[in-house]
Automatic annotation (TrEMBL):
It catalyses: GTP + H2O = GDP + phosphate + H(+). It is found in: Endomembrane system. It comes from the Eukaryota. One of its GO terms (biological process) is cellular response to starvation. Keywords: GTP-binding, Hydrolase, Membrane, Nucleotide-binding. Belongs to the GTR/RAG GTP-binding protein family. PANTHER family: GH16429P, RAS-RELATED GTP BINDING RAG/GTR YEAST. One of its GO terms (molecular function) is GTPase activity. This is GTP-binding protein. InterPro entries: Gtr1_RagA, P-loop_NTPase, RagC/D.
Amino acid sequence: MPRPGLHVLNGPTDEFLGRERLMSYIQDQTSADFPDMSAEVSNSQFHTGRLPNGAKNRNRPKLMLMGQRRSGKSSISGVVFQKMPPSETLYLETTTRPEESSAHSFMDFQIAELPGHVNYFTPDFNQANIFAEIGAIIWVIDAQDQYLDALNQLIDTITYLAQTWPAINVEVFVHKVDGLSEEYKNDTFRDIRQRILDELSDLGYDNAPVSFYQTSIYDHSVFESISKVIQKLLPQLPTLESLLNSLCSTCRIQKAYLFDIITKIYIASDTSPQDTNSYEICSDFIDVVVDIGELYGWSRPQQGEKTEFNNHACESMVTMEKKGQNYLYLREMNRYLALVCIMGDDNPMEKKVLIDYNVGVFQEALAKVFGW
């Protein structure tokens, strides 16, 4: 007879995650999932979470925002990492010198911003000081402005990095698309993407690590795009996706996200197809929970203390249900991370106790992954 609190998987219809099997899975991960942080990064196409040239701050992902003047670099940084309302970004001054800031959350992000009127590839600048610790460069292009000069600067940057720091990802944000019609927005995005890829192909850089996104600070697109940028810098991503896939299949969850609560960046999700509204729904749910928490929050017990129910997690879980529709499930993993799930149609609230148990097992596995 199984010990209390431990449910062993007996077949495909089991509704409990096996704690021993899941913990064994975490402990048996290969070096591909947990790469040697001291290993040299030289030929990788995409960044694996290790900073180029053995950078000192390898536990603090560093992003660099580049692009022409008035393209929206400061607005993106302010809205995503400093919680600035989008309407207030209209009064931001143009960046005239390099700036650095930090976002203290689950991962302490470092964000650097370079002014767009300076050529940093001349002998007057020490490129090693600028790029050596960068995990990803976000190149911002104003979709409402003339962008041919910006594309030429971007291509020069990509070719330089491909020769010198090939592990740095280049993320192209086609920005301010909210002011364009749907047809013109898509045409502009395709034109920018095709021009860059064609030029890189002509120069012999077919496999350069370049990705493209449509973004705006007035909707969730910029948060979703930053999330995908950050995920490439997270070495534990394959493990997190496998854990979320197991949780979704066991509990019949439609979509699951692991959110950084402060920035609303999701560091991982299951690998099932994602519709355009899933992230938006979960992100808005976090806003509601955070607002309620500010009104009715409590001081968390110190480690080792117990609540009257002998269970910390029972006081950090929220669900929202609308009759006849899918319901949302949120549970804190720690102070900074929250699991947010969109439950399937065949997953009634009556089975929530099973879901709570399985999410608890997932939380233990997560602690193993990150060494909490």
